[in-house]
Amino acid sequence: MVGYGIQSMLKDGHKHLSGLDEAVLKNIGAGRELSAITRTSLGPNGMNKMVINHLDKLFITNDAATIVNELEVQHPAAKLLVLAARAQQEEIGDGANLTISFAGELLEKAEELIRMGLHPSEIIIGYTKAINKTLEILDDLVEKGSENMDVRNREEVVLRMKSAVASKQFGQEDVLCPLVADACIQVCPKNPANFNVDNVRVAKLVGGGLHNSSVVRGMVLKNDAVGSIKKVEKVKVAVFAGGVDTSATETKGTVLIHSAEQLENYAKTEEAKVEELIKSVADSGAKVIVSGAAVGDMALHFCERYKLMVLKVSSKFELRRFCRTTGAIALLKLSRPNVDELGYADSVSVEEIGGARVTVVKNEEGGNSVATVVLRGSTDSILDDLERAVDDGVNTYKSMCRDSRIIPGAAATEIELAKRLKEFSLKETGSIMQVGSVCYCKIW
């Protein structure tokens, strides 16, 4: 049977929804449902949610960005709210829950207006006018003198960071905020506007409590050194992304050996080549070799002979951060590095923290741009939630670096906005007045 109209354009199994009840109100309903899920997790006293994703990984958190990402929302209208929350998280680093909750509330009020007979385009005009007026009012509510904040003043940074961290870890903000503030101030560049959140890393170690947490000016690698040398100070560092091992030939070949002497000479040739390469690295002044891939047994033997400490960093992202921390340039293959390709570290040592052996790379002076917050906690779930709180604190610092102006908290600003927008809406005429009076009288 041949389809007519829109049926002839779409493939089998399609769904076509139109009209007020079928499309608009169903989409609004989906947005409200998503908003209802996350709203109960809003604020410092919000409830945690238990989410199990498609890989059967368990998340216990009140972080809306994590909740909506792991829920795998399928409804197209609700997906728009998820995308809005994700954009908010990427741009500001916090406020994803407020984005979804507020959007759900606006949709709920829009539904009332639609049932009253207003057209969606009229509601959009009213909302747009309200947004523009809100931005005008916010400029009046800014606290005087807050635009001149010094982002390197620890006390002021901690004070401003507390509300963001408390929304994730209520009661722990007095312990967490000084740690995050120290880490951020350590890596803040000369121009604060260029602050990069990726420069503040988190190392999660199970065991102990939050009071055992600390800040390291440098990197903490969650693995042991490869060789027997476990501590060196004030050293130059060589980084090899391709690994520290003999490279195989590109083509296959057959070597015919007639005697034991020839076999011994063949083995010695390879051994001499590896020794020559390791010796050239040692002669360049490097005392630490960092490998981005495998470390061969023979190469390790000669590293021990020439008193070289060997670290293995499997992740290319960690390797990149290591280069940023030490100022080294990663070389593709094992060879003698030039002086300007070597990095520097004040100390590289293997330490035992809570039963786990970690390598701490400290750089107090030499051009360091990475700091690590070492978090301690009893379970992985607690550590994951602490990491999210640290992430919120770091993003708050980034926002301070961009624009340090502040407005009153504890919903005082929102109540004032609602009051002024209501007054503004009563001065407007037509459908915009209806939008304003219905929405802004009821939202707060």
Task: Report what the structure shows.
The protein has 444 residues and is α/β, with parallel strands linked by helices. The protein folds into two domains: 14-144 and 410-442, GroEL-like equatorial domain (GROEL, domain 1, Orthogonal Bundle), CATH 1.10.560; 218-367, 3-Layer(bba) Sandwich (GroEL), CATH 3.50.7. It has 13 helices and twelve strands. Helix 1 packs across helix 3, helix 1 (20-39) packs antiparallel against helix 4 and helix 3 (76-91) runs antiparallel to helix 4. It is elongated and about 100 Å long. Residues 440-444 have low confidence and may be disordered.
Key phrases:
444 residues; seven-stranded mixed sheet; GROEL, domain 1; GroEL; 47% helix; ATP-dependent protein folding chaperone; three-stranded mixed sheet; cytoplasm; GROEL-like_equatorial_sf; ATP-binding; disordered C terminus; single chain; ATP hydrolysis activity; 2 domains; alpha/beta; elongated
